[in-house]
Amino acid sequence: MIVNWVKEDEELLEPYEWSNGDDIEIISTLSCFKVDQKTLHDFIYGCLHIFDQKLCQKVFAIGDGHYALAIETDDQGKLCYRSVFDFCDRDKMNKKIAALELSNIHYQMYDEGEMKEYGLTREERLKKQFIEQRIDELYMENYDDFLMLCRQLNIEDAQSIQKYNHLKNKIAKGYTFIHEILFYEFTKKEYKKGL
Description:
7 helices, elongated, 8 strands, two-stranded antiparallel ribbon, single chain, alpha+beta
């Protein structure tokens, strides 16, 4: 089976988004576990700590018979990496998992990532994540630059939290010229000096 590992707090990449430089690996054998939809959702979007000792420092597959993931954990049971399967292996894994009895995996979700925004290219999603992170950094660590950015975008709310929310709402959906302008501005030399 071919997988493309992403870190536990990163979006899963569908096979058509895979590219050179990704963490692609061929796995010859995997233990498989059938789980309910809530558990599968948590494994897709959550940062997890698994309490079952047999799943610590392991690579295994989980799914509900319709969708499956490869999972890698560390020796403490922390979900480190996850991946979808390539198109050739996807049906095979789903059929294998569908035939299994339902498993109960004991875990705790300590953080949840944002839902993947479909309709954007991988590059647009990565730029958008960078922009959102940079706005957060400016707001928390370089407030004068944050205020200057708000003025440039005609965001004139009275309170700083309102400015922050206004800016975040402005970039929440899709990928537009505002995103391109912000990406350009944040990668210019004067913004990099604060990093």
